[in-house]
Amino acid sequence: MGKILSTKNLRLYYGKSEALHGISLKFLDGEITALIGPSGCGKSTYLRCLNRMNDLLDNVTITGTIKLQGKDIYSPKMSKSEIRKKIGMVFQQPNPFPFSIYDNVAYGPRISGVKDKKVLDEIVETSLKKAAIWDEVKDDLKKNAVALSGGQQQRVCIARTLAVNPDVILLDEPTSALDPISSVKVESTLMDIKKDYNIILVTHNMQQASRISDKTAFMLNGRLIEFDKTEKMFLNPENKITSDYLNGRFG
Ligand SMILES: Nc1ncnc2c1ncn2[C@@H]1O[C@H](COP(=O)(O)OP(=O)(O)OP(=O)(O)O)[C@@H](O)[C@H]1O
């Protein structure tokens, strides 16, 4: 079975205020799904439910189900560390740890108990290669990751995520803090790796969604308005609200 992630009737409340009004979606292995919609529609809130990041906040209530390969990720049987390993996350601001490139990428595997230097070397190299940053850093793996450019930092963060061999990668506006050339590199990295992962990407950049995603989900005011193949959605959306949004008529 593929690494399918799905939500069913997912509702989220901040205190008494309902921010997500029952979202059902299915994300498939080998695909990039873009989440789009105007500011405040709930994209980040929804994304953060998918690896239980919202658990860190007080006063949040979640109902409905989220399943990874048929298993409820909110079940007490699932440990949070297991979920974070299987469902990795990359943020808007590149957030490498303030230590070497090597140690950034080796961080997750070390925490999971990998000690053998050869094995770690191999994981670091493979992950940096997959993230399309190896050639730029291979001669200087001891360099502090925070000294890299923003685009390089973001690809190191992607490598750090890949190093623990996740099933799903969540990305919250991963290129919005980057210059256009770095953004293109991150986009092509995502397209290169997508066959092996289930990738879910929040983006404000419509060109980016249409360039790299297979499916697109359009959200508005905490609701899912439309979900379809990206090409269909951009060329011929079912819903007039989707078409208005994609044509810049609001938001
Ligand atoms: N920690 C929080 N506590 C209370 N309300 C919150 C919290 N985080 C988000 N919200 C509210 O939930 C709604 C959805 O916000 P969210 O950040 O998920 O939207 P978004 O679509 O990701 O927006 P943006 O594109 O601007 O990042 C907004 O009304 C926001 O004010």
Automatic annotation (TrEMBL):
Keyword Hydrolase: no
Keyword Transport tagged: yes
Domain ABC transporter: residue ranges: 5-246
Molecular function as annotated in GO: ATP binding
Keywords in alphabetical order: ATP-binding, Nucleotide-binding, Phosphate transport, Transport
Protein name: Phosphate ABC transporter ATP-binding protein PstB
Cited SMART domains: AAA
A Pfam short name: ABC_tran
Gene encoding the protein: pstB
Native source organism of the sequence: Apilactobacillus xinyiensis
